[in-house]
Specification:
The chain is mainly alpha-helical. It contains 6 helices and 2 strands, in the order ααββαααα. Helix content is 62%, strand content 3%. The chain has a two-stranded antiparallel ribbon with strand order 1-2.
Length: 126
């Protein structure tokens, strides 16, 4: 891509209405990845500008956020994630055989509490 056919991140932000910060986020999410100059500057050409425009149209049309489109991209690329999500959608809740019906609610609450405690332990400062 020739320098005349490309915009810097700030010029692209001005042209597209996306902030430079959002353009970096879009790049990190791998939704639109501009080429780089030899000195490392992002170069937004007509293809990137078109992808940014159509991305905005997609977001508005379906009233979704960038993170949702980013997740959709991850699901397209990661077969294990896609399979796990599909399995979750298809799964039906069931009471474990060893848990009596009268105790199922308490059993589920205790499972949640253990999960929350584990998460707290993992995120606690040391």
């Amino acid at each position: 891509m020739a320098g005349d056919d490309a915009l810097t991140i700030h010029e692209a932000a001005e042209t597209t209405g996306w902030s430079a910060r959002m353009l970096r986020y879009v790049e990190r999410s791998e939704l639109v990845v501009p080429e780089r100059s030899q000195s490392g500057y992002r170069l937004y050409g007509p293809a990137e500008l078109q992808r940014l425009r159509t991305l905005r149209e997609l977001l508005e049309r379906f009233e979704v956020g960038l993170s949702e489109i980013g997740f959709a991209l991850r699901m397209r690329r990661d077969a294990d994630l896609r399979e796990a999500v599909e399995e979750w959608f298809e799964a039906e809740p069931y009471r474990p055989e060893h848990v009596e019906a009268a105790n199922w609610m308490r059993w589920e609450q205790e499972k949640h509490q253990r999960l929350l405690n584990t998460q707290l332990m993992e995120t606690a400062p040391r």
